[in-house]
Amino acid sequence: MEAEQLKGTQAKIKAFEAKKEALMSMGGEKMITKQHELGKLTARERLDLFFDKGTFQEVQLFVKHRSTLFGLDKKDINADGVITGFGKVNGRTVFTAAQDFTSSGGSLGEMHARKIWKIMDMALDARKPFVSMNDSGGARIQEGVPALDGYGGIFYRNTIGSGYIPQITAIMGPTAGGAVYSPALTDWVFMIKKTSYMYITGPDVIKAVIGEEVTHDDLGGAVAHATKSGVCHFATENDEDCINKLKLLLSYLPDSCHNPLPLVSCSDSPDRECPELDGIIPDKASRGYDMKMVVTAVADNHEIFEPHEMWAKNMLVAFIRIMGQTVGVIANNPKFGAGVLDVNASDKASRFIRFCDAFNIPLLTFSDVPGYMPGTKQEWSGIISHGAKLLHAYAEATVPKLTVVTRKDYGGAYIGMCSKYLGADYVMAWPSAEIAVMGAEGACNIIYRREIASAEDPAAKRAELVALYESQFNNPYFAANMGIIEEIIAPRDTRKRIATLLDALKDKAEVRLPKKHNNIPL
Hints:
This protein is of the alpha/beta class. It folds into three domains: about 15-250, 2-enoyl-CoA Hydratase, Chain A, domain 1, CATH 3.90.226; about 275-440 and about 475-505, 2-enoyl-CoA Hydratase, Chain A, domain 1 (Alpha-Beta Complex), CATH 3.90.226.10; about 440-475, no CATH class. The chain is built from 20 helices and 17 strands. It has helices at about 1-25, 30-35, 45-50, 110-125, 145-160, 180-185, 205-210, 215-220, 220-230, 240-250, 290-300, 345-360, 375-380, 385-395, 410-415, 440-445, 450-455, 460-475, 475-480, 495-505, and strands at about 55-60, 80-90, 90-100, 130-135, 165-170, 175, 190, 195-200, 235, 305, 315-320, 325-330, 365-370, 400-410, 425-430, 435, 485-490. β3, α4 (about 110-125) and β4 (about 130-135) form a beta-alpha-beta unit. The termini are far apart. The mean pLDDT is about 90.
């Protein structure tokens, strides 16, 4: 009797293993070959690269669709087109959903979505990051409204989890229509050049409706979204590059807003000087320089990780480490458009500031800004409300906030780049700093208009008054005398001062007025 029971159990185990093997075969050898021919890895190959070897635990492998419409009752879709689970990434737990394009085009139906809901709920309960790998033809049309409701449940969880756990999307194939909104709701979006794209309406619909002809790549490819729309934070070369950069980003982030920041081993010194910074500011105020060199100089081991590298280049945002701990950097970059503030730069910085504040990442601002971009294009694009986002984001942030003024810091843009009375905890300035309402020539044209006009030699008089104004305001001493900045430092000492201040402010706690939430000028 026992032998018969054992034999029956073994048969059931074999049947289970056969079913499991079949489900894990994805769309079959033919579809896998086609995926490879497109220059893409399969969902399981991506997960193998992403997770530490042997740590991935799949969830709900046996879930299947239950639709009987349009012949679906006769169609098997392995894993219902999406692989969900969790595992270790560099030793830390991460939850994921990876759409499988080889299985019915990775189309999203009711049960496909419910698998994603389940793994997102697990990530929220566990307070761990969630990563979505998107490679899908979109909603499963045969299932109708239940597929659309599936997206709604994902969007809801994206929103509930915002600011609670890091959420990252890797666009690793097509993503169109309603599917694009989950990536837009997450914190970070990766794309892959030439093999991934995202858009609301595709080229065929655009041509039919408005007569415009455009390719998939020009409309919604990685470079288009990385340079034009700003939807893509990281444009990568291929699947492997995407996954490697995704893992690097995770290394800077905490598991949740309630978990400490990751602390990595640091071989750099808090007392390291940066002598190269003493000569980085050009002699002429009209000349630019690359602020990225400043950020790189102060970072641990000169390493930075830069989102949005290709969009709104006049504003630089980056993750660095100071003595092994993550710091978020916001900086004007005079190399591009003199570092001026415009609509895109304001949006870029505001979003980054709010992310860092949500996850308790200290903020370090480098300011060299001549003002806001003038002109009808900017005004009609809403520079007032977009610029207000930057003010709101800085003022709302309660993490430690340090500001370093390297050169120009004029007018409303001076306030916008985390000035003392916008909430900076500590403001430092280099000797080359110019903190004023505006540049010397523009100020003199207003203040001394009559004197210049009535002078025997207006040009000479203007030059004389400009030189006087410069002696008063084209330096940091007037602001330092009034306590508007805390300290004037030699550029070479910048890293040392930042390291000391971050250590001193690490236990900063700031309590705000009790309310439901702010109303940021979106």
